[in-house]
Every structure is written in C-alpha cells, then in structure tokens.
Amino acid sequence: MGKVWFVGAGPGDPDLITVKGRDLVAGAGAILYAGSLVAEATTRWADPACEICDSKSMALEEITAWLIDRATRHETVVRLQTGDPTLYGALIEMVQPLDAAGIPVGVIPGVSSAMASAAAAVESLTLPEVTQTVILTRMEGRTPMPDGEALRDLAQHHSTLCIFLSITLLGEVRKELLAAGWRDDSPILVVHKASWPNEEKIIRGTLADIRDQCREQKVNSQAMIIVSPALGARNWQELKKSKLYDEAFTHRYRRGIKKELPSE
Ligand code: SAH
Fold first, then answer.
1. Which of 108, 127, 144 is a domain's end point?
2. Of 20, 44, 147, 210, which sits most exposed with the smallest number of CB within 10 A?
3. Residues 110-128: pLDDT tens digits?
4. SS3 at position 189
C-alpha cells in the first residue's frame, strides 16, 4: 500500500516548489494535478514513466477514487496543488476518504500566492508599528462565510488583508472596506499570476480606482488582492526600524549595545 502526498506546487513558477516536493514528484508513480496552474511543475520534474493526470474535470469522489486506486499500485502518489495545500484546497475533504481507506497521507507545504504576490511587488506584509498581523481571507462566494468573518468585520483591524478568490468582486471588496472605515484613497495591490514567467501583472491603485484599472488590464482571474497600511513602505522616508536589527536590542543570538544618550 502506497502513501498519498499532498504537495504544494507553489504559485506558478515551477522553481518555487520545495526541494522535498520536487523529490516526491520525481519519485512518484502517479501524479494527479489541479489544472493548468501546476501542469508545468509536473512535466518538468516527473519521471517519464509516471502516470500523470489532470483533475480539472473530476468531481471530488473521482479524485479520491483515483488516489485510492493508484495508492494500491504505487509506493508514492502525489496530489499536486497550487500554492500551499492548506489554503482553499479542499484538503480535508480529500484526506477523510483516504483515512477511511486506511491509506497513509502526508502534506508538503508550498509557497502560497499571498506570499508570492507580496514578493513580486516588493512589499512586506508586516511592518513595525504599522501592522503586525496578516489576515488571509476571501469574499463570500458560493462558499458562505462563517459568522464573524465578513470582510467588513475582519477589516476593522486595519491590519494586512490578503484576499483570495475575489478578483471579480472588487466592487464588493471596496464596499466592505469602506464600511470598516478604510478610505477611498487607501492603497490596494492586485497581483495577477504572481511568479508566472512573462505573465505576472502588478497593479497598484486605490480602493476607488482599482476595479477600473483591473478591467482595463483585463485582469479577472488568478489574482491576489492585498490591502494593507504597509503598502508602498519601500518609498517612505520615515520608517520605524524592526527591533530585530536594532543594535540596542538584545535577543537570543546577539547582545545589544547600550546607546549613549546624545549630549548637548
Ligand atoms: N492554495 C492556493 C490558493 C488556492 S485558491 C495558495 O496557497 O495560493 C485560488 C486563489 O489563489 C485565486 O483565486 C487567487 O486569488 C489566488 N492565486 C493562486 N495562484 C495565484 C498567483 N499565481 N497569483 C495571484 N493569485 C493567485
């Protein structure tokens, strides 16, 4: 009996899979991948003899039946997913039937598109004394939001928000943020196909104009929305420095030096 590995393929660039993930892909007897986003990573690293299948047109039951069947014939079976498998990836729905069938399961994390989008735009999701919190969320779509998780509630914190699966709902995103006290001139970032060679688009705007900008650039899928009081900090003159690199700050690996008070 083989083991089924849920492997994060990363956000698009095949080189952004982890070394562990790549090794599992290379050693897999069968790989089921989730649509065009991860096709390339599969073909680049898999063995020519590996059975490779796209799950694009499969329902959940077919996916789990496929994985269970292949696990009876191969030692290593890989389910390759975009970004990180623990975010919006139906992981538990797939793991439960495998558990029921007595098939061992492993999960290899991946670079989430939230991180890849921030990296593409050279933004930090946390910034000292500006925001120290990141909320990963989405707008309500066909999947209803649990109580207390409406965007207007989460946005009250004025921390960083990475909003998945919502690029076609930018009008709603704006309404929710305005209701939470954000201003129409608040900066907002949209990254389309973060890390995809030659296809990545970085769109910067405000709550008021981002929808029109995305429309103009024909961005209506595979995009991350980031709203944060730290956006654009690269160009700020005044920056509170992180304590981690402050010479007066002592931590586990470095003793800080006492700063002399400036004498007049
Ligand atoms: N598990 C994935 C998320 C899957 S949900 C992860 O960790 O990234 C699909 C959503 O992820 C898309 O609607 C979009 O919001 C985002 N997404 C996936 N790949 C992306 C990419 N390369 N660039 C920008 N957003 C991406």
1. 108
2. 147
3. 999 999 999 999 999 999 9
4. strand
Closest CA to 38 of 20, 70, 2, 13: 13
| CA 22/CA 159 separation, integer angstroms | 34
Token pair for 56: 């694009």
Domain-embedded: residue 68: yes
Q: Give me the number of domains the chain comprises.
A: 2
CA of residue 190 to ligand 1 center, whole Å: 12
Our answer on whether the CB atom of 249 is closer than 6 Å to any ligand 1 atom is no
Residue 247 lies in a domain: no
* Of 108, 123, 149, the domain-final residue: 108
Contact 120 CB / ligand 1 (< 6 Å): no
Decide: 113 in ligand 1 pocket, CB within 6 A. Answer: yes
The reported pTM is 0.92
Residues 51 and 128 in one domain: no
Task: Check the CA dihedral 214-219-224-230 and report its sign.
Answer: negative
Atom in ligand 1 nearest the alpha carbon of residue 111: 7
Query: Which residues of the chain fall short of a pLDDT of 70?
Result: 36-37, 40-41, 243-244, 247-251, 254-264
- Which numbered atom of ligand 1 lies nearest the CA of 225? 15
Q: Which domain covers residue 63, as residue numbers?
A: 3-108
Torsion-angle region of 58 (φ positive above 0: left; ψ -120 to 50: alpha; else: beta): beta
Verify whether ligand 1 is closer than 6 Å to residue 160 (CB atom).
no
**Ligand 1: centre distance to CA 219 (Å):** 14
pLDDT tens for residues 33-83? 987 667 766 778 899 999 999 998 999 999 999 999 999 999 999 999 999
Based on the fold, state whether residues 127 and 82 are members of the same structural domain: no
